[in-house]
Each structure stands twice: as C-alpha cells, then as structure tokens.
Amino acid sequence: MCTDQLRRFSVCSSVLALCAALGAAGPLQAAPEIQTWQSASGARVLFVASPELPMVDVSLIFDAGSARDGERSGLASMTADMLTQGAGDWDADAIAARLEAVGAKLGASADRDMTTVSLRTLTRQPAMDTAVETLATLVSTPAFADADLERERRNRLIALRQDEESPRTVGQKALYRKIFGSHPYGADPSGTPETVAQIAREDLVAFHRRHYTGANALVAIVGALDRPQAEALADRITAGLPMGERPAPLPGVSDLDAAVTEQIVFPSSQTTVMAGQPGMRRGDPDYFTLYVGNHILGGSGLVSLLMEEIREKRGLSYSTYSYFLPMAQPGPFLMGLQTKNDQAVQAREVMLDTLRRFIASGPSEAELTAAKKNITGGFPLRIASNSDIVRYLAVIGFYDLPLDYLDRFTDRIDAVTAEQIKDAFSRRLDPDRLAIVVVGGGTEQAARAGGEG
C-alpha cells in the first residue's frame, strides 16, 4: 500500500481502540474452548466465543504461501498485497474509506506456508456488516487492475533494493537458500527483482483461482458471538469462494549432507554471523522437547546459554539467539549474532561450541526448572487477548494440531526431561552439517569468520 493508504488502514475508531486496550488489560483467561465445523463452502472453521468485549477478530487462512509460487517467486505475497488495492466496485481508496468509517482493521500477508487475511471489527451494526462485506469481497472478487499491479511492483522493487542494505536480511535470505536448496522454502516470499518484474496480471488471477477456494480455506473466529452467529459469519465470508480443492502436500525437506559456508562482503563495521539447518515441522513428536531445549540454549533472551557465553562472559555481541521455526515441512533451526568485524571469528566459534556442548551434555536440572517456570508462567499472557487466540487458532487449524493443544500446553512443557532434551538435540541437530552465512567486514575477515582459513 502507499503511505496514505497505510495510514488510513491503521486508524481505528476511539471505541475500537478502547476495546483493544481493555482486552489487553483484562483478566487472564484459561485455555479457551475451541469449537469447529465446516462451512457451506467447504472451509474448516475454528471458533472461540469471547463475549467480554463487543468485537470480533477473524482470520481467513489459505494454503497459499510462497512455497506455492512455482517459477514466479513473490507471486503469493503479491497476490495478497493486491487484495486491498481493489475489489468488486471499489478501488484502494474506497476500501480504505469503508474500513476507516467503521473503525475496522484489515490486512493480508503471505509467508512460506500460508496467506492470511485478517479482520478486526466491532460487532455493533452497521460496522460489522460493512467490515465483513469488505472482507468477503476482497477475497472473492479482487480486481487485480493493471495500474495497481504496476504500482505494487514498483513498491516491491524498492523494498527489495532496501533489503540489500540490511546485512541481516541479506544473510537470512542466503541462509535459507543454503539450508533448503531447490526446495520451495529456499526462496524468499518477497521474490527477487527478476521474478517480480515478470509477474503479470494473468499470474495473479490464476494463483487466486487455484488457491483462494473454500476447500483450501480455514476460518478462525474469536469474539462476542454465539455459535449460530459464528456459523453465519463464516458462511458469509466464504460464500463467494468456489469449492475447489486443496493443493498437494509440499515436498519433503532433505537434511544437509555436509557443512556449507557462504561469505558475503558487506561495507559495515559489524559482521553478521548466521547458522542453521533443517529443524522440525509443526506437530513434530519432538516439538515440545526441542522447544524447551532451545529456550535454554538461545530462546530466552538474556538468561540463555548463548547470551551467557557470548555477551556476558566475553562481550562479543549485544545479542544472540537461536530458534526453531516449524512449518508444514521441517522449517529451519537458526542461530545468529552480530559482532565487530575483528571479533567475528571468535564469536562464531563460541556460538558453535556452545551448541556442541549443549548437544553433548544437555541442560542442567536447574536450567530446565527455570525454563519451564519461564515458559509456563508466561503462557497465560500469550492467550490473554482475542488477537492472540485467533493466531493460535490459525496455527492449530492450518497444521491440523489437536484441539486441546492450548489445554495441554503447560502439561506438555512440564513433562519434558533433561534426558529427553539431550536425546532430541543429538538426533535432530548436527554441528558438523550446518549451513553458515557470514555478512560484513572485508574479504579476508569474512572468509576467516566463515571458517575458511
């Protein structure tokens, strides 16, 4: 969107803003009851009643992420971006004006697995009717006008040029290519200047026709509705979608055969070091074990092992991290830091040595106890608002996780043992088969930080 449209989309009525503030400050709730059914269009629906505030959050999720781009990298995200540029009889300004008038917020985005179109609106009328009609029209009859496409293309090309000025973004894109190779996950969702330049209106229309269907949709609803009202809402949102069918599952992800390294010279006083390899998928049997283990290793901020070794003991970096990003197929396990050019070699070795020690020894009981308390103690805050819950519903529904996922979350965390963490990390991660990307410094320094010489 252009700047004035973004500004208009971000404006909410004072009533909606007050409701959101009250929701954030309200009492923490237990794991919500999830109801599910299939809409008349074939979409799966997940619903949580939340009557405390007169508002509703809706997410419409399609199996239409960038992994479905094919040869036109960036197609899924361009299709999502174009939804708000015109639909039915409305242009972008008319869409923005409709939403602004009723204090509703609507957005669309695509990651590697999915496209998500989200709406937040008050349940009072005529606000809700206007907002829901807008959402339904955007997903069913987008215009994909040529003039809008050219404007979005220009904006995307500018954004891609700006990406080249960020060493972390440059490094992350390169690391995904190293980890996933020719697998669809290896391509960046934003595309490349070459592929974005090739995307035509016909590509958008075909992608929309193939993937924006009832059978390929999930509707997540959280708000002040009862079951019949939620059913009517889901049917209305998806009524204009053809039944269609789901696409075939994505291909599997192969493990790396050996370590791979890439050094990218970048004019900066800091060097960015990133490492990774295929990790786990959503619903993986090792999910909770790896999740707790990584919280100890590098996912818990200042109290993680990586922060202790790299920042606190040696002052090599202001921050460092590690995380698993589970997806439909195994997503990446990633580690990273940024440090002074002349410290890059040392920082890289400390990061990898810390990983090796953790794989070999696992966590101490004290570390495990602290991690469990931190995760379970903070869990209520993660489901304290409607927007939090609707995001969980999207994950639960899209990845076909059990409906009691939230109910059992803390129990599953508490059940993890130190021995299980050691076993899972030794089976799932291999420090000798990491993809490593180093961005920054001079040619010689980058090569040394990458392990070459």
What is the count of DSSP helices, taking H or I runs of 4+ residues? Answer: 18
Assign an overall shape. Answer: globular
- Average pLDDT: 92
Oligomer: single chain
* N-to-C CA distance: 47 Å
Strand content: 15-25%
Strands ordered across the widest β-sheet: 1-2-8-3-7-6
Task: Write a structural description.
With 453 residues, this protein is an alpha+beta fold. It contains 18 helices and 13 strands. 47% of the residues lie in helices and 17% in strands. The strands form 3 sheets. The protein has a 6-stranded mixed beta sheet, sandwiched between helices. A 5-stranded mixed beta sheet has the order 9-13-10-12-11, with helices on both faces. Strands 4-5 form a two-stranded antiparallel sheet. Strand 11 (320-324) and strand 12 (332-340) form a beta hairpin. The longest helix has 18 residues, at 146-163.
